[in-house]
Amino acid sequence: MIVVNEHYGYKYENSLLELSEEQKVILQQQNFSQHFQRSKNTNELCFDIQFNEKDEAYRLNSSYIVGVNWIVKGKLPIYIKPKLNNDITEVNYLLMLFEALKETENIKHLDNLYSIDFNAPLIQIEQQQDLLSPLLILEFLTILKQIVKKGLKKSYYDVTQNLNTRVKGKILVNASVKKNHTKSKMHFNYCKYQEFGYNSIENRLLKKTLEFAKAVISNHKTLSTESVKYLINYISPAFTNVSSVISLKEVTNLKHNPFFKEYKSAVQISKIILKRFSYNISQVSETKYKTPPFWIDMPKLFELYLFKKLKEVFPLRNEVIYHKKFHSLEPDILLNSKCGNFKVVIDAKYKPRYEEGQISHKDAAQVSGYGRLKSIRKELEIKNDNLLTDTLIIYTSNDSKNSDIVIDELLSQEDKRYLKLYKYSIQIPVM
Q: Which domain of life is it from (predicted)?
C-alpha cells in the first residue's frame, strides 16, 4: 500500500514518490489518476501519478480528498491521510464532523460528503486507517438523536407467532403443517397478524445498527469520547423495547413515510454501515479488516464546520445561507445579517497556504463573480448598483488564533490587490 498525506506535493509540484521494486512492477511505467464526483458537473482530483521516462521515477499529486482506494484494482491500493501540509499534526476530522452536526440544518447537507465503492474488491487496512467507519457511526448517531428527541415512530408491523388453541390474523398453512401437525401438535397454528407499536422494521433496523455502532465505538479510540458516550446514553433507552432481529429481505423492501424525513436518512446510513461490515458484527472487533474503497471530501467537511461556526454568531433564520443555487451557480455561503450590516458572499477554502501568500487569481475571480451576479445581490438585498458586494474567503490555518468566528475581525483583512475582497483564517481541530 502507498501511504501519503492529503495535498501531497503542493509545495513542490509532482513530488517524487518512493516505491518498492514490487510496486514499480505493478505500476508498469504507466500513469494513473482518480477523481471524486462532488456533483453532476464537478469532479475533484483525488490523486495523479505520472511516470517520467527521463529519470524513470514516479511523481504524485494528491488533493484534499482522503481515504483508501485502488491504484491498480486488486493489486496496489493507496491510503491518503488527513494531514494538512504537516507531518506532525493530524486533522481531527471526526471532531470537525461532530461540531458541524451540532447544527441540525447540516444533516440536510451531508450528500456527497463521502463515496463508497461496494462493487470494487475489498482492501485490507489497519484499524487506524479506517477513516470511514467512525464517520458513518457519528453521522448515524447524530441523526438517531434527532429521531429520539422527537420520539420513535409507531406503525403497523407483521408478527408471526405459534398460537395454542386460538387463531389470530392469517393462518400460515405450510408452516403449521410442517412444524406442528406433523409432530402431532394439532392444537397449534402459526399465524401472521399485525400489531401497532414501536417494533417496526425501521426501528428494528436502527436498533440492529445501534448494536454495531456500540461495537465500533468500543474498538475505536477516536470515538471513545464523553460526547459520543453521551449520545449513546441518550439514544439507548428509547430502543429498550425494540427487537434487533431483522432479515436482509425486510431491509431491502422498506418504504419511507415523507412525514418522517429523519427516518429516511437514518435507514440509508444504517444500510451503509451494515453493508460496510458485511452484516457481521464480529468484523468490528478485528484490528485488521477489509474495507470497500472510499473517499472523504475534506473541503466539504470544512464547509459544514464553517457553516456551524457562522450560525453560532449569526443565529437568526436565513442570516446564513448554505449552497443556494443561482442559475446553476452555487456559492458556498451567503451572509445576510442586519447585525453589523453584513451582506457578504463567503467562499470556504480548505487551503492553509493562504496564511503565507496571497489569494489565487482563480479563487478571487470565482468569489468576485458570485458577488456581481444580480440574483445573489437581490438575495442579499443590495439595491445600490454602484455598491460592490463584500466578498470573503475563509480558509483553514495551522497557526490561526481564531478557533471561532469573531464578528469584529471578519472583514478586517482586505486583500492588497482586490477591492472588497477579504480573507479570514480559522483554526480547525487537530489530533
A: Bacteria
The DSSP string of 138-176 is HHHHHHHHHHHHH-PPPEEEEEEEEEES---SEE-HHHH
pLDDT of residue 283: 63
Give the CA radius of gyration of the chain.
26
Give me 333's grid cell: 455561503
Q: Model confidence over 40-92: pLDDT tens digits?
A: 778 888 888 888 888 888 888 888 899 999 999 989 999 998 876 666 677 88
Selection from 298, 365, 295, 373 nearest residue 334 by Cα: 373
Query: Could you give the CA distance from residue 6 to residue 79 in angstroms, rounded to a whole number?
Result: 9
Listed by start position, the domains of the chain span 126-154+199-291, 155-197, 298-427
Tell me the Ramachandran region of residue 162: left when phi exceeds 0, alpha when psi lies from -120 to 50, beta otherwise.
beta
Distances (CA, A) of 92 to 47, 96, 232, 326: 21, 6, 21, 33
Cβ atoms of 406 and 424 within 8 Å: the answer is no
At residue 11 the predicted structure's pLDDT band, cuts being 50, 70 and 90, is low
For the full predicted model, state whether its pTM sits above 0.90: no
Q: Residue 67: helix, strand or coil by DSSP?
A: strand
* 3 state SS of 25: helix
Beta partners for 217?
A: none
H or E element that contains 50: strand 43-52
Grid cell in block for residue 280: 457481521
Dihedrals phi, psi of 112, to nearest 5 degrees: 65, 20
Give DSSP secondary structure letters for 272-340: HHHHHTTT-GGGGG-SEEEE--EEEEHHHHHHHHHHHHHHHHS-STTTEEES--BTTB--SEEEEETTT
CA-nearest of 258, 308, 287, 296 to 426 is 308
